[in-house]
């Protein structure tokens, strides 16, 4: 046979040998990492049945840096209820309403908690500043309907002014809750905060509270109806020395009540008792008038 004919016969034999070698099992080599993603849903196993999706592994997978990558934590929509609740209580001092705060274990019966705390009266530290309560014990809310809280029988006070102050305590305390806009006493008409607005002092301090441990800078908050809406603040140390001063403007003033926020800072090397004074500067002689004093604990600077 000629060399050309021999070449024609050798080519098919060589191709067949290459195909057979490609179908065999390799003796060595790197196959690469195992697949980590599930196969597409349309993929089938050699048997023709859908291939099952492998269950996710709880074992950590090594990252490129060598640290294990943990599987994501299961998501949850549950919200944990707070352990405590802070309520505002309105007491009486010199015939006017004054707020303070209490933090107590959380409860769904917040109106009952508020009235119980209101009737219990101020703490010794608050009483030392002149705070008192005119609400007798045992007063409870019987129902809340359409934003109106109805109270059970209230023992009548022997004085009309004291009775009105006691009612104002209840109204201003209960209407802090979003479900209460007005309060009904017995069979009377519902009343709200505006019905007792004349019992507020020119300056009301809502924060800080009596006995609070405060740090600098401190934000003093409240409401005021003062000349040119200007509210002044000063910080006194344990010896009564002035440590810092500041002032701010209420959102309304000189005949209307507005909210204010005054930030004041100081420096002290040790923790000590102190006083936050909030006052109005007299338009006549520049003296401090309508002063509200709040005893506090001054934390060390940076502490």
UniProtKB/TrEMBL annotation:
<feature type="signal peptide">
    <location>
        <begin position="1"/>
        <end position="21"/>
    </location>
</feature>
<feature type="compositionally biased region" description="Pro residues">
    <location>
        <begin position="49"/>
        <end position="59"/>
    </location>
</feature>
<protein>
    <submittedName>
        <fullName>Sporulation and spore germination</fullName>
    </submittedName>
</protein>
<feature type="region of interest" description="Disordered">
    <location>
        <begin position="24"/>
        <end position="82"/>
    </location>
</feature>
<keyword id="KW-0732">Signal</keyword>
<feature type="compositionally biased region" description="Low complexity">
    <location>
        <begin position="33"/>
        <end position="47"/>
    </location>
</feature>
<dbReference type="InterPro" id="IPR019606">
    <property type="entry name" value="GerMN"/>
</dbReference>
<dbReference type="InterPro" id="IPR018911">
    <property type="entry name" value="Gmad2_Ig-like_dom"/>
</dbReference>
<dbReference type="Pfam" id="PF10646">
    <property type="entry name" value="Germane"/>
</dbReference>
<dbReference type="Pfam" id="PF10648">
    <property type="entry name" value="Gmad2"/>
</dbReference>
<feature type="domain" description="GerMN">
    <location>
        <begin position="111"/>
        <end position="195"/>
    </location>
</feature>
């Amino acid at each position: 046979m000629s060399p050309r004919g021999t070449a024609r016969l050798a080519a098919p034999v060589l191709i067949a040998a290459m195909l057979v070698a490609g179908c065999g099992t390799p003796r060595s080599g790197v196959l690469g990492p195992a697949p980590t993603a599930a196969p597409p849903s349309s993929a089938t196993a050699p048997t023709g049945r859908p291939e099952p999706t492998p269950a996710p592994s709880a074992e950590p997978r090594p990252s490129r840096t060598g640290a294990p990558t943990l599987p994501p934590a299961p998501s949850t929509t549950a919200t944990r209820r707070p352990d405590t609740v802070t309520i505002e209580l309105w007491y009486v001092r010199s015939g006017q309403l004054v707020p303070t705060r209490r933090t107590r274990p959380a409860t769904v019966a917040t109106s009952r908690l508020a009235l119980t705390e209101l009737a219990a009266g101020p703490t010794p530290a608050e009483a030392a500043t002149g705070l008192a309560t005119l609400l007798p014990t045992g007063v409870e809310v019987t129902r809340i309907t359409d934003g109106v809280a109805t109270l059970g029988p209230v023992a009548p006070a022997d004085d009309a002014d004291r009775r009105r102050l006691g009612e104002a305590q209840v109204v201003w305390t209960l209407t802090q809750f979003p479900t209460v806009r007005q309060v009904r006493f017995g069979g009377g008409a519902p009343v709200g905060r505006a019905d007792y607005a004349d019992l507020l002092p020119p300056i009301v301090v809502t924060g800080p509270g009596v006995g609070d441990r405060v740090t600098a800078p401190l934000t003093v908050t409240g409401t005021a109806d003062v000349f040119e809406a200007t509210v002044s603040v000063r910080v006194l140390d344990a010896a009564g020395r002035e440590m810092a001063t500041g002032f701010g403007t209420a959102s309304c003033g000189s005949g209307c009540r507005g909210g204010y926020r005054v930030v004041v800072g100081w420096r002290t090397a040790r923790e000590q008792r102190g006083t936050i004074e909030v006052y109005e500067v007299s338009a006549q002689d520049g003296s401090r008038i309508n002063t509200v004093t709040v005893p506090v604990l001054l934390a060390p600077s940076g502490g």
